Hints:
alpha/beta; Rossmann fold; 7 strands; 35% helix; 22% strand; globular
Amino acid sequence: MTTGPIIFDRPLLRARRRRAERLGASDFLIGRVAEDIAERLSVVLRRFDVAVDLGTPGEAVRRALAATGRVGTVVAASPFATGSLAVVADEEALPFRDGALDLVTSALSLQFANDLPGVLVQIRRALRPDGLFLAALAGGETLTELRRAFAQAEAEIEDGISPRVAPFADLRDLGALLQRAGFALPVTDVDRVTVRYASPIALLQDLRRMGATNVLAERRRKPLRRATLMRLVEIYGERFADADGRVRATFEIVWLSGWAPHESQQQPLKPGSAQQRLADVLGTKEQPAGEKAKR
């Protein structure tokens, strides 16, 4: 387990996800990500014999992997995993030996890791050479409307602002983490999804059924005051409603992929090995360093 700063209350996260299952989980985002994972794997011309789906709520990703025809055994690894092809494990303490896996996927789970750099290192070590890691995380613009509305409502009603929405990482930070973890050919990209709700209350109810309500360790422990909630609803409607009265919620999905290093992979050219000058390719004049260009 992580020994660094505790950002997320992970026992509470597990409890919230169990509650979501009892309520009837809202899994439209997981379903979208599962379809995208299958599509991204469809352009990889190889087979993955042993795959682990890490931390993903539900079975959508595992079903999508099986349907590709390119993945053999798919093992679920999460605190809630059940069945013969399942391992009960926390994402921050993987039980797999080095070089045991061909593919690791994860959908909308790793953003709640307290030590994401450490998790990425563990995943890279668990992959065989030329094994693939493919994951989707909630990005920094996720629920930006809710964050702003909560901040304004609490500033007006409460005794200061409290952390309400998780500080998810942005695209550049995650790309750098892949490199630090030792992945080859790291790639990051982003998909922004706008979901419209009948009201801010409907959004909050949906987050509850996603198991995605506030699990920040520094969250305010007091129950949300009714006056604050009502003001939140007013502000959200004023600032983020469409002409028909429905409100918008942004979900930013950041995609990460990287390969365990292997000698067969493309390698960057050594400095000075180019056979043609960039200036010639661009049809411009090379400017020595430190010399100002003439106007």
